[in-house]
Amino acid sequence: MSDEVKKGLLGIVVDETTISQVMPDINSLTYRGYAVQDLCEKCNFEEVAYLVLNGELPNKNQLKKFKNQIEKNRNISINLREIVKHMPKKSHPMDVARTIVSVLGLEDKETNDNSPKANMRKVIRIFAKTPTAIAAFFRARKSKKIIPPKKNLSFAENFFYMCFGKVPNKDIVKAFDVSLILYAEHSFNVSTFTARTITSSLSDIHGAITGAIASLKGPLHGGANEEVMHMMNKIKKPDNALKWINNALKKKEVVMGFGHRVYKKGDSRVPTMEKYFKKVSKINGDKKFIKIYDIVKSVMIERKNIHPNVDYPTGPTYHLMGFDTDFFTPIFVISRITGWSAHIIEQHAANKLIRPLSKYSGPDHRKVMLLNQR
Ligand code: SDX
What we know:
This protein has a three-stranded antiparallel sheet with strand order 1-2-3. The protein has two domains: 20-220 and 329-349, Citrate Synthase, domain 1; 224-321, CATH 1.10.230.10. The chain is mainly α. The chain has 16 helices and three strands. It is globular. The protein binds s-citryldethia Coenzyme A. S-citryldethia Coenzyme A is lined by residues 8, 186, 189, 220-222, 224, 254-261, 306, 309-311. The site of s-citryldethia Coenzyme A has 19 residues, from loops.
């Protein structure tokens, strides 16, 4: 048995999965065998959520039933609504999201039933209720009235409605829907692996998703889309961009929204998300962010050969849609609940406790001296 340390599990294959495949050499990402680019153009997020969770794209009846299940479960309890309303207004929305899923676990009657059927019922409840509770905090922290979910709206439309009280035009909704499809699943990323690790001790799905949210918050992972916006706001205007990015590279800073553990020639999701960022930018008459975006991207590629990842175009897109910057990663959460849940169910189906080894480099074995001898 080799005792060579592979820090960060770099390049280590720890298990098999049938959910998605990341192929960096051909710049491809597929969910259950379907290319994400194809899914973005031909499906809406609910169809893709069904695919990620069930392994097949739904037919009309299956989609109708799935949408009804989500719609029926969107409302949150009065108790959870009151908890959200009384959370400290300065709380980070990712900490609120983590707490929401924990409370849903306390309320769920099937929390300790890890059977496939019970888990799928719990997934529907978590998937349907988490956006409602996150939107409730979006309003409550501004001391605005909480808006309950509305019937006959899509997942994407309903999130806008619960946050802003209205649904934007169809192009904006489509761009948001595409971002949810692109964020849904990405193999053994750190938050998904966190969920699988928690599941491997046969703990419950609410706990596994709570842990995954804590992991996604980190700026090296999902939190990067928020950091991208902070970076753009620091740059302020396109004329500052070249100087800012060269200065950041000179100081060897990590530039958020760039680089990836697996993709080394560019994140396969970026071209699609970039296309919709540019559409939203045009609709908003934005001249600033799109120019900053292009300048920073060209310098990173030309000078460091480091390509943007999906968080780079998503950050400014969510800003132009009117979302507060610290709500960008919670939007990642409401989409990635699908991928996390599929992996949790897959881990249960063929479980082995995840317990790696470590290479000891501490003091040699020694005897304990009594207190009055130390
Ligand atoms: C996501 O895994 C997934 O699939 C995640 C995700 C998903 O869908 O779940 O795709 C979503 O998390 C995307 C990543 C979002 N994170 C960021 O944008 C944060 C900025 N990125 C970096 O922190 C970094 O690129 C990582 C953490 C994402 C990946 O880093 P690795 O694989 O651990 O590589 P590394 O940090 O060791 O970098 C290798 C070299 C280093 O230079 P040297 O020390 O060898 O000289 O590349 C440099 C790094 O300094 N580098 C960067 C950089 N990314 C890598 N330099 C400046 N800015 C960057 N963004």
